[in-house]
Specification:
single chain; about 300 residues; alpha/beta; five-stranded mixed sheet; 9 helices; 17 strands; about 30% helix
Length: about 300
Amino acid sequence: MTNAQTPATTYDIVGDVHGHYDKLISLLKKLGYEKQEGVWQKSNHLVVFVGDLIDKGPNAAAVLTTVRKMVDAGSAMLVVGNHELNWIHDAADHTGDVIAFLDATEKHHSRVQLTEAFKYDPNRLINLFEWLRDQPIYIDEPELRVVHACWDEEAIACLKKAGITRLDHKGLAAYRDTYSDSHLALDRVVAGCAHQFPSSLAHNPGFRSKRFRIQWWPEDRAEINPIESNLVPVQILGPKPDSAPVFFGHYAMIGEPDTLGINVAGVDYSAAYGGKLIAYRHTTGQPLARKHFVT
């Protein structure tokens, strides 16, 4: 079969799993994936995870293990979320010392389940952690674009110019350079946050900004779970209407899934808070429509 005859890939973009392994497996089955040789897969289909695989839910270890097998086998892709970023920030300096790494991992109470799951083989957890650091911050392909929280063209351009594509040594160093352009770009793309720098905080030895989560998508058709913090509507240089569609998670929406612009769709519908884990089934060249959400 020539390349011209090869069927186009269909992308199944999956929302924030947050440790809900049972919901993940149920959704994969609904999407028509089957477990073959230990890996969930479907011919000519590719799962795209929008990040936040860990924290909040009961079985992050199984989620991480499952997703890694899929990514390594070529049946899935992944961008990192803010919960992966927080773990990497906490524990990256301690991978050479198992006890210190486990202590750093447990700085977030939800991650205790990870150390428990791997208590007899903590080096496997460190290996998973290092693998996460090698996953992209964003996906920018002709067929689709994916971020965890916010597709801001200026922030993406900043990261590209700096050569920051993942949370490796270079990416983490940029994030830790607080209030640098790269730090602010990472915080925008991965955590959906903006910063204001009031003069009253200019000489503060700690935080010098007021940080807040933003609502950036073009069409206000989304209701946010009230358990989450309030959003501030902000106009950004977002995706152009004639560009590849953008998919994102992070915002714990509720209600009936819908598109949020001509080429923008959010896929986090509060699986972490009792809602459904959903997906959007995207075929290259097909206009976005609410009928393509899979719940």
